[in-house]
Amino acid sequence: MPRAGDAMVLSGLWAAYIAQSVIGGLTWGGLPAVLRDQGLPLDRIGLLSLLIAPWALKFLWSPRIEGWRIRPGRSPRTAQVILWTGTVAVAGLILSGWLGLVPLLPVLACLMVVAIATSTADIAVDGHAVGVLARRQHGWGNAAQVGGAYVGSAIGGGLLLVLTAAMGWQGAVWALAALVAALLGWFALTARNAPPAPWNGAEPSLRRALSRLEIRKGLWLAGSFVLAQKFALGMFGPFLIDQGLPLVTVGLLSGFGSLVLGLTGAVIGGASVRRFGVHATLLAALAVQGLCMAGLMLGAAGGIPVPVLAGICLLSGSALLSFGFTALYAQFMRWSDQAQGGVDFTLFQCMDGGLSMAIGTIAGFLAQQAGYGTLFGTALTLGLISGMALVWRRSAITTPAG
C-alpha cells in the first residue's frame, strides 16, 4: 500500500483524473444519449466526435504549457495552470447548461472550449505526476490515472443521465460543474508545495523529446500494446447485441460492471507493477487477453453461452484493459523527463489516442466484411505478436519491482 506521506499527492491525482474524465464521460458518454432522447438526428450527434480533436492534438501546445509551468530550481506553477484551465472548463459547463441543447452548435462551441481547457490541464497534471512521484509510487500513480478515468467516465456518462431525468439538462450539468470545480480545487491545493524542478537550461520541446531513445521506445510500445489490447474493444457491445442481449442489459454491463471491474483492474495493476514490475504485468495482461480473444473467437462460431461471452467481454474490456494500461503508463512515467514531463507523457498519450481512433474504424470494417470470428482472431494474432515483441525486447524495458 502507499505510504502515509504519499496519500496527499495520490489523492490529488485521483481528484484531477476523475474531474477530467467526468467531462469526457459527459461529452462522449452521456450527452449523445441525452441528445438522442430529445430527438436530435444521428448526423448532428456525430458532430460530438469533433471534440476529441484537442485530446489528439494537445502535444502541439504541450511544450508551451510545460515551458511556463516548470521553473528550473523553483516550485512548478502546476496549481496556477489548473486553476486557470479549470475555471475556463467550469465556466464552459455552466454556460452549456444555461444555453440548453437546442440549437446544438452553441453548446458544441462551449464544449470545444471545455475540451481545450481540460486537455491543457491534463498536460500539467501528467507533468506534475512525473515530477513528484518517486519510482516506487508509479504503480499507484497510474492506478489513479486509469482508475480515475473509469470513475469519472461513469459519473459523466451515467450519473449525468440520472440527474438529467431528475432535474433537466441545466441542473445536471451545473451539478457536475460543481463537482469538477471541487475536485480540481483539491488537486490545486495538493500541488502547491511540489518540490523544485531540476535545473536544466533546455526549453521543453517536441524535438528534444523525440531525440531521446526512451521516447521512441515508448511510442513503439504504445503502438504495439494499443493494437493488441484495443483492436476489438469497440465491437464488444455490437457483438453482445448480435448475440441476443437486450440493449438495456448491455448498457448496465458496460456501465456499472465496467466501473467496478475497471477500477479493480487499475488497483490490482498498480500493486502488480510495484510487486512484479512493468514487464511482467504487461505480459500477464497480454496473455490473459489472448485467452479472452480465443474464447470470443470460438463463441462467435457458437457453442458458448451468451452470459459467458458477456463475462469475457467485461473482463477483457474493463479489468484487463485497466490492469495493462496501468503498467503501460507506469513505464511511460519512468521514461518521461522531469524537466518536460508533460511534453513526453503527452506524446505517449496522443499515440494511444490517435491509434485508438484509427483502429476502431478498421475493426468495424473487418467485423462487417469478415465476421466477428475473424475480428477476434486478428486481435488474438496482434496480441501474440505484441507479446513476442515484449519478450524479444525485454532489455528495452527496465522494470525492477518497486
UniProtKB/TrEMBL annotation:
Pfam families: MFS_1
Any one of the GO CC terms: membrane
Main location (coarse class): membrane
Positions of transmembrane segments: 45-61, 81-99, 105-125, 146-166, 172-189, 218-241, 247-268, 280-302, 308-330, 342-366, 372-392
Keyword entries, A-Z: Membrane, Transmembrane, Transmembrane helix, Transport
A GO molecular-function descriptor: transmembrane transporter activity
Coiled-coil zones: none
Domain of life the protein comes from: Bacteria
Subcellular location: Membrane
Family statement drawn from the similarity comment of this UniProt entry: Belongs to the major facilitator superfamily.
Protein name (record): MFS transporter, putative signal transducer
Keyword Transmembrane helix found: yes
Membrane topology annotation: Multi-pass membrane protein
